[in-house]
């Protein structure tokens, strides 16, 4: 097996604030943030993959898995080779990937996931409002239209949410996404600082290389929680508002 990047994943519905938190974390020494959507948006729109991206994202759909994973792994390799991302120093923070179970399985050969930050928002309409405001500010084609935003939500609930089942429950931290960016950040850091310290200690001792070569994490099934509220409902707030 090739060496795997030790990483944390930012996970959550569209509008939950993964990108915002990721960008702030990326400014802190010792974290390296990479957003899959950002890598796609930086593609030359006249390239084949750039056109494929525009085609899918403008409809609120996911880009097909094989080109996505290939682009992502080439991008990671380039960043590592150029020394932009230093696996032994920086803790990798990924957002926007994996987006479905198939991607999660394909990424098992590339990633050792240490923690998943699940940003939870009990108010779906409020998150949709955030997306509308961002679309105006950032001129984003995927969030400019109401039906595209709703489609993105459907895709999240149907395809992305089940990704959590792929990882063991004890590595998932649920964080309320509804506060100010600083308030959410405080909670995210509470979870991530210990992970970063362990990553750094491992790298210093040389016991376990940052791009580790051990087996993928055990998969533990996730079901509805004891009170009958499924995590997808928690995430979208559908049950909470009933
Ligand atoms: P947001 O952060 O608003 O949820 P992103 O910026 O992550 O959205 O992604 C924008 C678009 O890029 C997605 O709607 C999708 O078309 C494409 N995309 C991003 N990441 C992936 C991925 N891992 N797999 C497939 N498509 C992706």
Kindly list the characteristics that best describe this protein.
9 helices; Rossmann fold; binds adenosine-5'-diphosphate; 242 residues; six-stranded mixed sheet; alpha/beta; globular
Describe what you observe in this structure:
The protein has a single domain, classed as 3-Layer(aba) Sandwich (Rossmann fold). The chain is 45% helix and 15% strand. It has helices at residues 18-26, 36-41, 48-57, 65-81, 101-107, 124-138, 146-160, 181-205, 231-236; strands at residues 4-12, 31-35, 91-95, 111-120, 172-176, 211-212. The relative contact order is 0.20. The site of adenosine-5'-diphosphate has 18 residues, from helix 1, helix 2 and helix 3.
Spell out the blueprint of helices and strands.
Layout: E1 4-12, H1 18-26, E2 31-35, H2 36-41, H3 48-57, H4 65-81, E3 91-95, H5 101-107, E4 111-120, H6 124-138, H7 146-160, E5 172-176, H8 181-205, E6 211-212, H9 231-236
Helix pairs in contact: 1-8
Bound molecules: adenosine-5'-diphosphate.
Concise synopsis of the structure shown:
With 242 residues, this protein is of the alpha/beta class. Helix content is 45%, strand content 15%. The protein is built from nine helices and six strands; from the N terminus they run E-H-E-H-H-H-E-H-E-H-H-E-H-E-H.
């Amino acid at each position: 097996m090739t060496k795997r990047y030790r990483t944390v994943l930012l996970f959550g519905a569209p509008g939950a604030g993964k990108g915002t938190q990721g960008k702030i974390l990326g400014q802190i020494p010792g974290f390296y943030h990479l957003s899959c959507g950002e890598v796609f948006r930086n593609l030359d729109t006249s390239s084949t993959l750039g056109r494929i991206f525009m085609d899918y994202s403008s409809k609120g759909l996911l880009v097909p898995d094989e080109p996505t994973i290939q682009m992502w792994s080439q991008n990671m390799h380039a960043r590592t080779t150029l020394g932009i991302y230093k696996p032994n120093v920086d803790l990798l923070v990924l957002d926007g990937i994996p987006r479905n179970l198939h991607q999660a399985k394909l990424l098992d050969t590339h990633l050792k996931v240490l923690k998943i930050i699940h940003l939870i928002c009990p108010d779906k309409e409020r998150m949709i409002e955030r997306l509308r405001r961002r679309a105006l500010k950032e001129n984003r084609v995927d969030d400019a239209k109401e039906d595209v935003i709703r489609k993105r939500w459907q895709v999240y609930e149907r395809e992305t949410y089940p990704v959590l089942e792929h990882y063991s429950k004890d590595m998932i931290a649920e964080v309320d996404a509804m506060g100010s960016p600083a308030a959410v950040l405080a909670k995210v850091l509470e979870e991530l600082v210990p992970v970063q310290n362990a990553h750094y200690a491992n790298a210093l001792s040389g016991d376990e290389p940052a791009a580790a070569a051990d087996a993928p994490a055990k998969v533990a099934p996730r079901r509805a929680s004891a009170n009958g509220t499924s995590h997808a409902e928690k995430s979208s707030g559908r049950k909470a508002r009933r």
